[in-house]
From TrEMBL, chains A, B:
Limits of the Heat-inducible transcription repressor HrcA C-terminal domain: 104-345
InterPro entries linked to this entry: GAF-like_dom_sf, HrcA, HrcA_C, WH-like_DNA-bd_sf, WH_DNA-bd_sf, WHTH_transcript_rep_HrcA_IDD
Recorded name of the encoding gene: hrcA
Function as written in the Swiss-Prot or TrEMBL entry: Negative regulator of class I heat shock genes (grpE-dnaK-dnaJ and groELS operons). Prevents heat-shock induction of these operons.
Pfam families associated with the record: HrcA
Protein name: Heat-inducible transcription repressor HrcA
Length: 367, 367
DNA sequence: ATTAGCACTCTTGCTTCAAGAGTGCTAATA
DNA sequence: TATTAGCACTCTTGAAGCAAGAGTGCTAAT
């Protein structure tokens, strides 16, 4: 009973602080929240909560504000993420439905998410490493330069220029291109690189083999490029709008460090389908010490689909680093530690769901 | 003589203010700059300059700061943009030279420019409307969905999904694709749309013609899409670093309004090769009232190349909206009105030059 | 046309002060 | 033992007052 009320107090403090952003005192709590005890009692509880590290007071004679630990408890208690209402979900689907390409869909998604949460939103494009090749095109830019365009099953398009020392006849390139596409389709990028390399060795390619090797190296590089999944960020202006409680510079710096953000969000969205939350120092990122990150993976590789097609395609080597159910990309939102966690988590989840559908759906495409 | 010294004083005030960011008084001026007159004389000049609208004093008893008009005069006087030193230019070329694709080059460019100027940098990808088609690929995503990938001579890649109501045999699509590429190559996008549309009518395409028409519409839409040239922005964090003299929110808002920025920069970079400067209200953009924009076009369509190839290719209709020497995209930097104009203009110019070379160079490609 | 000198104006930083909010502790109560 | 009333104490916040400093405008002299 006692323990229980203490936590109710904690919850009340946090809710109030999230609303008002001001240190909350015992009397406010006693008045506004129906705790049925006097302010003095609450004072005792708050003192205890402070001892336990859930609350802190900015100065001797002010109300209390939650600590990182406080928020963590609060978020953990928030176990069941409230689903958005059907209407809200429909609105999202509606807004995103007439996207015209994957990029377009992702751009809309960040903007939408940022708008819903009123915070910074981040969406990554599907990681190339975790996608399958749908087509590899080789477009001559000049006699000695080729543009390799790789289209993945997630709908993303990556490009890379290759320059050669020799001039190659275009029909031979076409042939090679056809051959590559025949062999590589539906392999992961790293597997495809292997295919191409093998092709370079086996076939009677003569002057082409050099080119093929270069191409293989390129594809491999793409697969391993950590920041391969393009990052979309929106809503940085929202940051400038909140009264500058503190210095925003480090936060902005962090946002420009794409690699850092990428790693952070990826870690956070490991277990699929669920939204992850990192609060303050949990982000292990200098600029985010007073921010929280809410993120979810999306685009889990469809399990049955994979295994079905694994057995079908004998050409594909086993060293594919697919992890079943590992998300292919992520979507998230970054805000102050005193953000509205419930709302943010719901929104992130909803957008993630939508994007997952969208990607899995490439049998029907974007309408 | 008198007129001349007044303007020297103006120049000195502006230079000092750009350095220190603090209102500059007559005594400082007399001491630090070798004007050879007393502070009282300078006071008179400053009073005159204030009457003429070049200077203003924030409060009765403070130094003077430049007005918009002051900056304008200053910038106009700065006629000859200082070229960067050979070493600096080499450093730029060096940093950008191992770009691996157009996107990559553009991303590096913004980051670099932002780093050099210490301000926000913006680079647009080549506008599709002003580029020529190098290749149009049609990749089936499913039986009823096609991904159209358009590759332009500037090296940019645009994509768009098309969904159909009927299933089309893939070999027929290949044929159509070949035909389209045969006819459209080297046309502008809008011309290509026309080609495809004509193809749809003339050929015995049967069930394909519907698809072709859809494709034509898509290509046309891409050509007309104002924001088609993707926008790259870097260095927003720099904004947060300068002491917040004033509210940054509107500035951030403006930066997120891609369409607005796009239009502004485009207008500013009309006359090619030269950098344009818009100061404060000259930008006609609410959020930029105390910012200045320095921008330059890049990637002028190479004049002779165009005309040569205009006569050669009889298939291309005349309604191409090429304007000789009109830039294809732009690069610029945004900073406070008290920025270091000379340095910023030099940097913008250097990067623009480099990018122009890069694009024109698609006969040699990225090294 | 320039300059020295001087009175005047404003900002800026500091200190003081009173009001208000909130706490911690003690002693009384159920 | 858990709760509560009461009270002294602490600390922030805002206003007000004040002295120092910077810079100007004006006048009179060169």
């Amino acid at each position: 009973m006692k323990q229980s009320r203490r936590m109710l107090v904690l919850r009340a403090v946090i809710e109030d602080y999230i609303r008002t952003q001001e240190p909350v005192g015992s009397s406010t709590l006693a008045r506004e929240y129906g705790l049925g005890v006097s302010s003095a009692t609450i004072r005792n509880d708050m003192a205890a909560l402070e001892d336990e590290g859930y609350l802190i007071q900015p100065h001797t004679s002010a109300g209390r504000i939650p600590t990182e630990r406080g928020y963590r408890y609060f978020v953990d208690e928030l176990a069941s993420v409230v689903r958005l209402s059907a209407a809200q979900r429909r609105a999202i689907a509606n807004f995103l439905s007439d996207s015209v390409s994957l990029q377009d869909a992702l751009e809309r998604s960040v903007r939408l998410l940022s708008h819903i949460t009123g915070q910074v939103a981040i969406v990554s494009g599907p990681s190339l490493a975790k996608s399958r090749v749908r087509r590899i095109e080789i477009v001559p830019l000049s006699t000695t330069t080729m543009l390799a365009v790789i289209i993945t099953d997630a709908g993303s398009v990556a490009q890379h220029t290759l320059s050669l020392d020799v001039t190659l006849p275009s029909d031979r390139i076409m042939d090679l291109s056809d051959e590559i596409n025949r062999v590589c389709i539906n392999s992961s990028l790293s597997a495809a690189a292997g295919c191409i390399r093998r092709l370079a060795a086996v076939q009677d390619l003569r002057e082409m083999s050099n080119f093929a090797i270069k191409l293989a190296r390129t594809v491999e590089a793409m697969a391993n490029d950590e920041r391969s999944g393009q990052l979309y960020i929106a809503g940085t202006s929202q940051l400038a709008h909140q009264q500058p409680t503190e210095d925003l510079a480090p936060l902005f710096d962090a946002l420009e460090e794409q690699a850092v953000i990428m790693r952070l969000m990826n870690n956070l969205s490991q277990q699929n389908g669920e939204v992850g939350v990192a609060i303050g120092s949990e982000t292990k990122t200098p600029g985010l010490m007073s921010s929280a990150v809410v993120s979810s993976g999306y685009g889990h590789s469809m399990v049955d689909q994979i295994s079905a097609d694994r057995s079908a395609d004998a050409d594909r080597p086993d060293n594919d680093n697919y992890r079943q159910d590992a998300p292919v990309a992520f979507v998230g939102s970054i805000g102050p530690t005193h953000m509205d966690y419930a709302a943010t988590m719901s929104a992130v989840r909803a957008v993630a769901r939508y994007l997952t559908e969208l990607i899995a759906q490439d049998d029907t495409g974007w309408s």
